Every structure is written in structure tokens, then in C-alpha cells.
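REVIEWER CHECKLIST
Item 1: Sequence provided? yes
Item 2: Single chain? yes
Item 3: Sequence as submitted:
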Amino acid sequence: MKPKASRGNQWLVESRAGLVRYVAANLFSHGYRWYVTGQIPEHKDPHRVDEAILDKYNLRIAKWERARRKRVGWASVRYLRVGRFFLLIATDGAHPFRTAEAETIKDARRTPLIIDDYSMSIRKQIVGSGRGLWRPSIRIKRDTYLQLRAYFLELAVHRSEDRLRRELWNIPFEPYQPVVRQLHSLLRVVNKARKRARYSQIDYEVFRYRMKPIQVFITQDEEER
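Item 4: Structure as written out by the authors:
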């Protein structure tokens, strides 16, 4: 008998933004760092691929079984899919996934996980005691950030202040701390250009600092429609 649906047994994600948030808050912060991503070809049925992967790595297990495996040194593995994009991600430890994907598996501490225009990694931060702690770091990927910077430099002295403020407010990235730092850096460049042109300065309140509410997983009712 299959276990009842729970967070550990859900894999269909509503949106890529939801996937980013779930990985950052629920996986990176709990030791998941070994990952493989893929794109399901158009000629394949995504649900059949789901079944094949879940069966291959025996991922539909009850919460108590996952805890038992962890106690004996096995890795925890999650499979997540949004549209045709999928992610397999694991903690340290032995697991058939780690063996089968050995040639393609990546470590988020060394190679950022790219989901849309987000670059997601785990970075060491030094705390007060001098110890290094591994923490999630979610930022706008470099080439996207540079494009964004060039776009707003063009707008800086060629659009009204109201138009510029609206554009800055509507930048479509959630305010993770590294993203906020990137946006503040962008605004400093914009204000520098505006100062040279003797235009008014834009304050940091132009950005959104609260996360939008988001549904991560597709509910069973939605899946059956």
C-alpha cells in the first residue's frame, strides 16, 4: 500500500518560483546538496517519467522509513517536478541515486543550481565564534543581473521618475537577502547616473521586501483535473 500523500511524498510543484522557495527553505537548509536536473522531452509523458524515477530509487516511502534510513547512514532523496523540468536532490550518505548518477551529480556548495533566472547555492558563512556554517544563498544569476543592470541604466535618465519607480517595484524576483543586495547595488548605479544628469535620487523603498504568498505543491484535486 502506498503511503498517504505528505510533503515527503509530494513531487508535483505549482511553479518554478515555488520550487526555488521550497529548495531554499526546506531542502538546502536540511542538508540536501547533491543534485541532478533534467528536462522531460516533449514526446514523453511526464507522469510516466515520474513513476519510473520514483520506482527506480524507491522514493515513495513513509516518513518513519525515511527517518530509519537516515539513522543508519542512508541519504534522503527528493524528486520534484514543475512542468517538464525535474530535480533530484539528496543529502550526504549512501543511496542508489548517488551511485547511478555519479557522473552527472553536482554539489550545490560548488556548482550553483540554476532554476529559471535564480542561481541557488550553499555558501559558508562565518559566525561570531569563527565557525563556518553552510547556508542557502539565492541570487539572480549573473548574466540576467547584468542584463537587468543595463536595462535600468538606459531607463535612468530617459524615463520619468514615476515610470522608473514602477519598473523597479515590478522587478520579478523575490527578496531573498542576496537578491536584495543585488538590487541595492543596481540602484546605486542608477542613482549615480541620475546624479550626473542632475535628476532626483531614488530611495531603497522602491523595492518590495516581503515575499509573495505562494503555493508550492499541486493539490490532488488540481492534479486530477
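Item 5: Key structural point noted by reviewer: Residues 112 and 146 are 17 Å apart (CA to CA).
Item 6: Recommendation: ____
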